[in-house]
Amino acid sequence: MPIGTIDRSPPPFFRQGPSSLTKLILFASLALFLMVADNRFLITRQVRSLLATALYYPQQVLLMPIQLLQGGSTYLVGMQRALASEEMAKRALAGQAERALRVEQLLGENARLRALLTLRPSVTVRSQAAQVLYEASDPYSRKVVIDLGSNSGVLLASPVINENGVLGQVTRVYPLSSEVTLLVDKDAAIPVLNSRTQARSAVFGSAGVLGGGMEMRFMAGNADVVVGDLLTTSGVDGVYPPGLPVAKVISVDRKVDSGFARIVLAPSAMPDGVRHVLVLDPVGLQMPPRPEQTDAPEPDAKPVPPRRGGHK
Length: 312
Hints:
Mean pLDDT: 81
Structural class: alpha+beta
Shape: elongated
Strand content: 25-35%
Number of helices: 2
Number of strands: 12
CATH architecture of the largest domain: Beta Barrel
Radius of gyration: 44 Å
Oligomer: single chain
Low-confidence stretches: 308-312
CATH class of the largest domain: Mainly Beta
Helix content: 25-40%
């Protein structure tokens, strides 16, 4: 084979076209041109719209198994939750029906006992909604001012409560406002009834309790009072209706060196942050008048003749 017929050109692997720098500049210029043209002349928007429209249905078809799986699992979980909620609702309804039946039975029994004992019905008092205007400026007392006064029928010594229990008592009445002394005031006192033992006592406001609170004084060291006891109004003072929550026992310190126990209470109605209250008329307004004591002798009684004294 003659040497002149041999192909001396390099194989394709070693062939060299344009340089790398030339290719970089070319493609960079093309990319820059396409970005500017797309941004200024929007030449590819229609192409994108066509591609998105063409690929929408294939995407939905491909996503359908995943959506079916997610929907099925959500349905099963929702069905289980619905069945569990239905079961809980049925149990709660049964409990409420049982409690309602007991309440009806207790109401009927109470009415029969009152009729048997010829007792008067429970006292109902008039109430008025009021708003707390501000707290008294005296730093040594706990008093607030409400927006109802004598023009609205507020009476002196009227109880003031909220949804949690007794807050205090009206101690000053003005034509358009009233001053309420809170139960946590150091000079406040209220008779209470221990709902567990039915023992009567009195609680007082105490400035020495941390954060302001109440305490039960003059209780024997062996008194039947434990932490958690709920104290309510006894109703024997003719001011507060019976059964209103007053405080709860939070600490009982039975001192060995003293015959009395130090009992710290937490008020049921916290006075801080209260905005709306209810003013009640004193219960004594609806109580029957007390019989007047007279020194006149009874009609059937015979007068006693005076004793005669003589000198010998």
